[in-house]
Every structure is written in structure tokens, then in C-alpha cells.
Protein: Sugar phosphate transporter domain-containing protein
Amino acid sequence: MESRILSSGTNPFSSTDLIQLRKPIRRTITSSIISTKSPLSSVGDVSGGGNLNWGRQLRSTYLLVDKFHPISSAPSSKREFVIPICATSDSAGEAKVGLLEKYPALVTGFFFFMWYFLNVIFNILNKKIYNYFPYPYFVSVVHLAVGVVYCLISWAVGLPKRAPMDGNQLKLLIPVAACHALGHVMSNVSFAAVAVSFTHTIKALEPFFNASASQFILGQPIPVTLWLSLAPVVLGVSMASLTELSFNWLGFISAMISNISFTYRSIYSKKAMTDMDSTNLYAYISIISLFFCLPPAILIEGPTLLKSGFSDAIAKVGMVKFVSDLFWVGMFYHLYNQLATNTLERVAPLTHAVGNVLKRVFVIGFSIVIFGNKISTQTGIGTGIAIAGVALYSYIKAKIEEEKRQAKAA
Structure:
């Protein structure tokens, strides 16, 4: 599964598949202090150029000065306030700029590297597990379960502090989590059935489904240039599918269902905009999605797993490797999605769109090298055309959104 969680709420049909649930920042000023209501999602706002530090907000410290704590030697009865220019300060209260704040490009580059690295490692380890343990419904549950445990431990130690959840928010997030769960499970069914590179080629069609939903479900007109840019995507996927050596209908249809599920997730996510920060939102969606994934895993694969699935896997690789593989694939799944969120919140839409396309190229390339998958010349050309089409679509889409923002600001 790809990085699909919690990006900017202004554009639910961007080239990436992250859930977009953020409301704009609001500021409140009183006569005595300045208070800023700035949730984590606003800190990483693309338009504001904010920074995100591993899911924790860099909060400004406000110094209130009155007659008992004068700034100068002359006493004053008038209360004043001083706002520091950065989020960190030394013991003497003097503001100083840290290395990360001074070189934000290095931090963003590190986030991109870790996003790609974790995504590639996840896809490789995930496919290796399916080679000796072909139970995608159960493995999907493991992905989410490990992430949920990680989130619960993070909440327990206050990194980040758990955001409260009320009934209204829960009702809004349930459809989002349901679509997230279905898309995640179907992606894994496809990964287990066909080559990783082929699944990612099919999933390159996701922008086509997003555009179709925007045009025909939400009634938002799509420019002709965007539709034209999708033509090479459809052509490339068709070419790759016709000569794919690992092709089977289960893998193809599962990947297509995944595309549709994530498209509807984008629709519901727009309706579920909230002030909650992205890290907490992803945690809650993971928890709810886990409950959706458990029943089909028990009903479809439960009997076979108890009869021979677990014992066969342990006989092939051993108990320690089997358990460690499941644990680490779950950790990589959760961390790469969280890193994708943090990365995409730090950059402009165009950079984010290009980064998402390059991520898919990395995954396809590394999977072919690691697993030695043989591909026909037509499949290779078709995959290249599809990726180029996605890049063109992402570029045009990002430019259109940027023009809309500039027009609104003017």
C-alpha cells in the first residue's frame, strides 16, 4: 500500500493517495496575550511552509512581562508581551535558531529519502512473505495491528499527545476508514497474486479514477488538458497488462478495486475535515480500519490458517523468522505511511506530485532487480508510458491548483 494518508485538505484528488483532512489555521488575539490555535496539521501546511518534526508541533513560548518583571531598569505598570522568533530557546530565554530550522531543505531531503527507503523495503519484504505465506487478508491485519500497537505506545508516552475523539468525528471517519481498509486489503491480494511491479503499474491508473469521480460524482469539471494527460496512463497500463508474464485476473481486478476504494476514500475524506493533527488522525483511522479487516481475515483465511497455514510457514522459515518478518513488515508499513504524510506536508504540491511519481518508479525498479522478475519489452515500454503519463498529469494538476490558490489570494 502506498502513502495515502493525511495530506492537505484543499485537494482531495491529488496525484498522491494520502487522506486529506485538515482545516485552515485560526488565530485569536486578546488584549493581554497572543494565542495561536495551530494544530499539527497547520504546522506542516504546504501553503504556510511550516515544519513538522516527527509528529510533534514546535510550539512558540510566550513571555508575559509586567511591572514585576521589567524588560528595562525602569519599572512599568503596563503589561507587555514578547514573541520569540523561533520555537526553541536556551535557559536564559534567548532565542536561537537550531540546525534543523536553519537548513530545512536538508530535513525535507531526509524525509524524502526515508519515505522512499521504507516504501521499497516494505514492498520487498511484503512480497517475500507472500512467497512462503500466501494469506493477504491475515497479513493486511498484521500491517494495521502492528501500527496500532505503535500508536498506542506513542500515545502512552505522549509522543504525540492523544487527541480526543467524539461521536461526531467517529461518524465522519468510519467511511474513510472503511475505504482505507478495503483498498489496503485489495492491494495486498494483488501483491500476493502477481509481481509487485505489475501491481504498481495497475495502480498508476488511480489518477484516472480520481478524475472520473471528481467529474461525474462531485460534479467538479476537469480541464481537457488533464483528461488528455491521462491517455498515456491508460495506454501504458493496457500495453503492460497484455504481455505481463505474471498476469492473472485476481491480481488485476484486486488492484483495480483498490484504485476505486482509495478514490472513494478521497471523497469521504473531504467531507471529514477536522482540526485533529495528521498523526492522530492516521492513528484513529488505522484503529478503525483494523476492525474492518478482521472479519474477512477470520472468515476467509481463518480455517486454512489454523489447519496448515501457520505450520507450513513455520516449517519453511522457522518460528523466529516468521514472527520477525510479520512484525517488521507491519512496522515498515506504518512508518512509511507516516513519513509520507510528514514529507508531503513540508513541500509544495508540484514537488509532492513529482515525489510520488518517483516513488513508484523506485518501487517498480527495485522490485524487478530484487526478485529478478522477467518482463517483456512491451511490458517495460507500457510501464514507462504509464509512469510518464502520471508524471504529466501530476504536473498539470499541481499547476492548476497553484493558479487557483494565487487567484483566491489575489
Remarks:
- The first strand starts at residue 26 and ends at 29.
- The two ends are 39 Å apart (CA to CA).
- The chain has one domain: 104-409.
